[in-house]
Design brief:
The protein is an all-alpha fold. The protein is built from 13 helices and no strands. α1 crosses α11, α9 packs across α10 and α9 crosses α11.
Length: about 220
């Protein structure tokens, strides 16, 4: 298969497997999504979804958030890891939202990426999932799959994002990045990977990845 044929195979297979696509992080609006995505850095979505209800019961908008101190926020979000940095970011961006945007999350990559503790991936998730703007946020699952499927060289998440945007039509970006996340978790994880369950990698996978897999998991006849 050519690279473009592999990309088309991915689109069609994932569309069949995930015709409806739940958003992994629980939220009710752009602000709560922004906070949840910020918290998800180096933390599982499961853990974030356990902590955000506690945080949002106290503050689910920037005005209530700045009534708490950075230390109070940190104490709540500590199970998500990196709480000193994340709590300062949550407090800081909430203050900026009030002072500069009347408490409303702006629909702009540039504005979002200017907030403390908000990088390009976080901004891309918010733009895609909250505002429906075409974006292709690359997390560890997508980065791994794009390499396994010989669609990117795996050198950096930045390069993976460029390759994904070049290969896949913009019209599918918002659905496809979520479908890839779910597929990566369910069928092609980093650990406990069973190639026989992973139809996409088995069909179009990078040869060196397949060789390494069979080297570690020899076929028994």
């Amino acid at each position: 298969m050519t690279k473009q044929e592999r990309a088309t195979f991915v689109i069609n297979t994932l569309k069949e497997k995930y015709p409806t696509i739940p958003i992994p992080l629980h939220h009710k609006d752009a602000y709560t999504l922004l906070i949840a995505v910020l918290l998800s850095a180096q933390c599982t979505d499961v853990r974030v979804n356990q902590i955000t209800p506690i945080l949002f019961a106290k503050a689910d908008n920037p005005y209530d958030m700045v009534k708490m101190s950075v230390d109070e926020i940190a104490a709540i979000i500590r199970p998500c890891g990196l709480s000193p940095m994340k709590s300062k970011g949550i407090y800081g961006l909430s203050k900026i939202l009030i002072e500069k945007y009347e408490g409303v999350v702006p629909q702009s990559f540039e504005a979002l990426e200017s907030f403390p503790a908000v990088g390009h991936k976080t901004a891309s998730v918010v733009m895609s999932q909250a505002f429906g703007v075409a974006a292709f946020p690359v997390d560890t699952h997508i980065h791994r799959l794009m390499y396994r499927w010989n669609l990117s060289n795996g050198k950096s998440v930045q390069q993976t994002e460029k390759d994904a945007k070049r290969l896949f039509p913009e019209s599918v970006w918002n659905d496809l990045h979520l479908q890839m996340i779910w597929y990566g978790r369910e069928y092609s994880p980093a650990r406990g990977w069973k190639l026989e369950d992973d139809i996409i990698t088995k069909t179009i996978g990078r040869s060196i990845v397949l060789k390494e897999y069979y080297k570690k998991n020899p076929v028994r006849l």
